[in-house]
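Following the same procedure, sequence and fold were stored together, as reproduced here:

>
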Amino acid sequence: MVSIENLPELANEVLGGRRLDLAEALEILALSDDRLLELLSAAFVIRRHFYGKQVKLNYLVNAKSGLCPEDCKYCSQAKGATSEIEKYSLLSANEMVARAEQAVKNGASTCCLVISGRGPSKREVQTVADATREIKQRWPGLKICACLGILQTGQAEQLRSAGVDRYNHNLNTAEEHYQEICSTHTYQQRVETVQAAKSAGISPCSGLIVGMQESATQLIQALFALRDIQADSIPINFLVPIPGTGLAANALPLTPQYCLKVLCVARLICPTVEIRCSAGREKHLRTLQPLSLYVANSWFVSDYLTTPGQAEELDHQMIRDAGFEIETIPGLSEAEVEAPCAAATACCGGSA
């Protein structure tokens, strides 16, 4: 077994099935910034082995905003948050379908339907199911990821029957740290929802938020937990301290180098999964955003739930300038496939 000092050999051992332990993961996270490019290169060996140079783009539809009874300290939609955000009840199925069309136009191959709240009502599940059926009718190759909160018995099966491909419910942090960020539901309830989605035949998506006063050990514990629940997709969010939220004044300072090291550790711990470089990418990675593509194989395009992203043309430009390829939706017409690429080409001055 090689030491952490030999990162290229470590990457090869991970490809061969080696699982990092806590001490090794902490050592990698603590590597000096001088070794960042070496670490990115090792992570890229793994990323390229499983995903080539493809980048999956995800588009968020905030289908119900605010009005949430949960007290998650990181969230602008939470009970007690005084953040100035738009608040509205559930969109209609037709409105969700219209938003999905925008996902296609933005070059996304996955559309995420997200609602605020503890968990969905029967009506909310039915509306999301109706929207999913219509979306699948129009764009059969567009993947649908639902994020509706804690599921009740039978709801995962109903979503799966409608055509939902993936269900997102983030663990967010280590179990021992969870009570510090939320008191209205438990870490175990989140685990159970991920397991319910998986049992229903839906691909489980679960991730974390970096920068919530967690220790390095707790960050690694969260990644190990995501490995253990066998999440197929792991969104890694970097906390955006939104004014009016419980963590606005207590967020950990995050550098672009640290964020990239977190992504690398995630890739080494969970080599085979889709890693989404998610919320906070623009704020915390800044000009180093393209380097995340050497580790993560998935980005969100355009805006997030209550915070803006960057123009989709710039996302396309960054991806193509770095030499990566955007995953397209199977079955689209030639015109539909070329539409988002044309905008990126124009933005790049014809060099994409």
